[in-house]
Amino acid sequence: MEQELLLKMEKISKAFPGVQALSEVDLEVYKGEILALVGENGAGKSTLMKILTGVFKKDEGKIIFKGKEIEARNPHHARQLGISMIYQEFSLVPNLDIATNIFLGNEPTRKFDIFDYERAKTEAERLLKMVGLGVSPDVLVEDLTVAQQQIVEVAKALASESELIIMDEPTSALSKEESERLFGIMKKLKEEGISIIFITHRLEEVFAVADRIVVLRDGRRVGELSCEETRISEVIRLMVGRDVRVVPRVEVSSDDVVLEVRNLSRLPMIKDVSFSLKKGEVLGIAGLVGAGRTEIMRALFGADLKTSGEIFIEGEKVEIQSPNDAVKMGIGLVPEDRKFQGLILIMAVYENISLPSLPFMFSNGIINFEKEYSLAESLVERLSIRTPSIFQAVNNLSGGNQQKVVLAKWLALKPKVLILDEPTRGIDVGSKAEIHHLIDELAKEGIGVILISSELPEILALSDRILVISKGRITKELKREEADQETIMQYAII
Amino acid sequence: MQQEMTKRKNSKSFRFREMNILIALILMCLLITIMNPRFLNPFNLQTIARQVAIYGLLAVGETLVIITGGIDLSVGSLVALIGVLVALFMKGGLSVAFSIIIVLLISSLIGLTHGLFVTKLDVPPFIITLGTLTAARGLASAITKGWPIIGLPESFFFIGQGHIIGIPFPLIILLIFAAIAFFITRYTVLGRQLYATGGNIEAARLSGVNVDRRRIFAYVFNSFLAGVTGIIVASRLSQGQAGVGSGYELNAIAAAVIGGASLAGGEGTILGALIGATIMSVIYDGLILLEISSYWHDVVMGLVIVAAVTIDVWRKRKSKVG
User: How would you label A410-425 residue by residue, b for 16+ Cβ within 10 Å and e otherwise?
Assistant: First the structure.
């Protein structure tokens, strides 16, 4: 099939102080195609896209768009040229309505440059129809769900008549249904001749929607694959440069109940949740985004106040009114948002690692630095956290390594119960496998692990038992051998 | 081996940051000395030391609050109110020691109130302490009706005017409290948790840090130090006066920021605060020695404050890019 070339990036190189972020990367995008750009964190995907949209300047190379050499000065300029990027962090203004957001910086105007709101509204209505969002354009963005906001971002890109839309991890905060709806929109756009560059860590999604895959590793292009002719394992091999196996968990059975939760409620969100967790068990928590999985665990951990319910640790009733109480009881929580909830980015690796356990390590209140450093060193080694030293600010670490620091800080506490909320979201395949392996190891050491994940394969591979949550209640408990994706989904949408 | 090296490297860059402003301070002193050698006169140095004590105590307290991500605008007014109250109590016949204890309790309670408003009622620290800034000064004026309270016991004057082997007593008070604060911030679990709270309050809370108590601690400690400063100022002036300490809160914040504290929270050192306070005092002293009209003093101070905050923001942005 003869395809029309829309974009050609030739031998793009870019160096940052200390790192060669990109070396001679080629990338071409055809008209009306969905190209998946994959690679581990730090492989250079974002840098390449930021060069394309004018956030960074390239050191070398050429960018040809629609047959002409271009160099975007900034994202706004790129948008005028016909290239829009939808970032992981949304660029919408929450307290403005949809129509105003869609035309922000690109406003239709009347005489004297006055914003023509009516025209923006009708035009927005048309665009929203096109992307299948059944919401009025005068609704405020802050009243939309994350998925809806994502779709508004797409509409915004269409408003500027972009011919190339770049989506950076668009599904990282979406549920399965929402993601599928987005894929539907992507395919529709493709039929209208719009090209999409799709960046994601979730390889199943690549196969669900993309035509072609370009793999980057360490700032180089290491392969190009056609979705029809390849398999996930091949992509992973190219990404990490080695084979990665998902180690199936060996069940460690124990009858000692470490945690029991009775009738936990946080009205109106969570109603009457009861479950127990054994030593060395991995309890998977499945359900749609917004089903109340995170909320249940936050109430258990004392991060939000419960309205009723009892919690028992090793058979003894405990009062948990705050995370401080939970930590004293030996419960750890790896929260879903590592940057805002998990880490103190400006602090060093060792300071983050020791934070929860400091009061227990040094009960007289005075820090023994030798002891603190060696604790951090040992965990950095155990979790193979890639950092120049334990004194490095966490801010400077890659996503996967940051997540490992969050895990390390709870391991330092030697918890009885460890709650992991989306522990592998948005991190690269290599770190993901390492974290999976670690979860298995922790369970073997006798820690009770609660694992929340939106990725069903992850839940299925790691859990001994699975609780399915829907609308703030447990709708089903499944044993490892009874569970499969279909059964889980069936109870998740009750 | 490698670990040793990184450790040394870290502590080196740690000290370097304060080294920058220390060098600025030394250069400033040299410059003023060249322009007017009277700068090194023992009497002048004592004057500076007394000023450093006042700014330093406030800067140390303010730094603690800023580290936790807060701000306290009330300290200047607290200096006046506490000075008036301690004078009032002594005039009313209470002993010097007892009066001091009572006013320090009062100032700590005011800090506790600030802390409770900030943590339990979620009132922004800027607002609640702005309220105290206005109300405390108003209360001081209402008590004195605008007249200074004079005729205080002689023994009270030693605190602000006395010296031990040539060192002004206020400077000794500063060094004691600065040492305590230095120890807390540098070597204790409490100190680490103060930084964590300011660095990312939600992450700190979810790590089991009792962030409310840490913030309350900072406000109480800061108000307590403002109380100490109020006593020193009253003693130095031999009277309780409602008009003193005006604008001190800004000097304290400026000193903290010059010393490396970040208004975004999570950063700042006691050593930096002390150097910052010294820089402020030396600038004031220099302006007087160089016979620059006092009308211009506030203009210069304003510029210094703006420059300090700008450098803070600029440093932040630079570290983000790098």
Answer: bbbbebbbbbbbbbbb
Min Cα distance B75 → chain A (Å) is 28
Q: Which residue of A has its CA nearest to B202?
A: A341
H/E element, A458? helix A456-462
CA of A201, closest CA in chain B: separation in Å?
25
pLDDT along chain B (322 residues), means of 10: 42 59 89 91 91 96 97 96 96 93 97 97 96 96 92 92 91 96 96 96 95 97 97 95 91 90 91 94 91 86 79 65 40
- List the single best residue of A294, A328, A358 to mutate versus B (max B Cβ within 10 A): A358
Contacts of B209 in chain A (CB under 8 A): 324, 355
Phi and psi at A357, nearest 5°, equal -95, -10
Q: Quick one: pLDDT band at residue A320, thresholds 50, 70, 90? A: very high
Distances (CA, A) of A66 to A28, A70, A164, B147, B270: 11, 9, 10, 81, 59
Tell me the shortest Cα–Cα distance from B123 to chain A, in angstroms. Answer: 20
Closest C-alpha among A455, A464, A376, A386 to residue A421: A455
CB atoms within 10 A of CB A370: 9
Closest residue, chain B, to A388 (C-alpha):
B6
Kindly state the tokens that stand for B11.
């502590």
What is the C-alpha separation between A209 and A38, in angstroms, rounded? 13
Q: Domains in chain B and their CATH numbers?
A: 43-321 (1.10.3470)
DSSP B296-313: GHHHHHHHHHHHHHHHHH
- Which of B68, B188, B189, B215 has the highest number of chain A CBs within 10 A, making it the mutation to test binding with A? B189
* Domains of chain A with bracketed CATH: 5-240 (3.40.50.300), 257-492 (3.40.50.300)
Residue A377: count of CB within 10 angstroms of its CB: 16
Token couple for A303: 């991060």
pLDDT at A252 (0 to 100): 61
Q: Please judge whether A367 and B188 are an interchain contact, meaning their C-beta atoms are less than 8 angstroms apart.
A: yes
Helical ranges in A56-107 per DSSP H = 75-81, 98-102
